[in-house]
């Protein structure tokens, strides 16, 4: 990938990250960056098409659940 390729991936990533609303350094952002680059390397080169594919591939991580104190003793 050259600088132009990275610029396209960065624009798609930034737009999607802002749309979804997660921090650039979050695990979610890392997942989306990896998906974006992987799709680009697989031949999805048009920005609109790449963004649509990133949106389709994105599955948010399930929210972390708090373990009730009664269950914590079982786990330790």
What does this structure look like?
The protein is mostly helical. The protein has one domain (3-60). The protein is built from four helices and no strands. α1 (3-20) packs across α2 (27-41) and α2 (27-41) crosses α3 (47-57). The longest helix has 18 residues, at 3-20. The protein is elongated, with a radius of gyration of 17 Å. The N and C termini lie far apart (47 Å). The model has no long low-confidence stretch (mean pLDDT 85).
The tally of strands reads 0
Structural class: mainly alpha
Number of helices: 4
Strand content: under 5%
Q: Level of helix content?
A: 55-70%
The run of helices and strands is HHHH
Write down the overall mean pLDDT: 85
- Shape annotation: elongated
Regions with pLDDT < 50 over 5+ consecutive residues?
none
Described by strand count, sense and barrel closure, the largest sheet is: none
Q: Give the termini distance in whole angstroms.
A: 47 Å
Write down the Rg.
17 Å
What's the number of structural domains? 1
Overview features:
76 residues, mainly alpha, 4 helices
Secondary structure layout:
Elements: H1 3-20, H2 27-41, H3 47-57, H4 69-75
Helix pairs in contact: 1-2, 1-3, 2-3
Summarize the structure.
By secondary structure, the chain is mostly helical.
């Amino acid at each position: 990938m050259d600088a132009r390729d990275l610029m396209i991936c960065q624009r798609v990533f930034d737009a999607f990250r802002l749309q979804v609303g997660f921090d650039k350094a979050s695990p979610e952002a890392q997942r989306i960056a990896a998906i974006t680059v992987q799709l680009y390397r697989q031949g999805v080169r048009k920005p609109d098409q790449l963004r649509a594919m990133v949106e389709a591939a994105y599955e948010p991580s399930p929210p972390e659940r708090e373990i009730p104190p009664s269950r914590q003793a079982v786990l330790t």
